[in-house]
Amino acid sequence: MGKSGRMPKKKCCQDKPRCKRCPLRALAEGTLPPGYTVKKRRLVKLDKAEKVLAKSTRKAA
Predict the structure, then answer these.
(1) In Å, how far are 10, 21, 30, 51, 58 from 14, measured between CA atoms?
(2) Of 1, 36, 48, 59, whose CB neighbour count within 10 A is largest?
């Protein structure tokens, strides 16, 4: 992993400037752990990324 020994947070809090553990910041800096990506401001594993996108776009009945 990059400079910090901690995992990025699970969800971006949208603060400006970005906090040290922001997943968006880690993505931009290239310090995301292997096997992870960011979808809809959330940290997700690569193999579950499509499921997260499908779940987050559902509408409430």
Answers:
(1) 12, 12, 19, 23, 22
(2) 36
Q: What are the structure tokens assigned to 22, written together? A: 């922001």
Mean pLDDT of the chain: 80
What is the token pair recorded at 2?
């990059």
pLDDT of residue 16: 85
Q: 59 with 53: CB under 8 angstroms?
A: no
Which residue type is seen at 61?
A
Contact 50, 40 (CB under 8 A): no
Q: Encoding tokens for residue 4?
A: 């910090």
The one-letter amino acid at 32: L
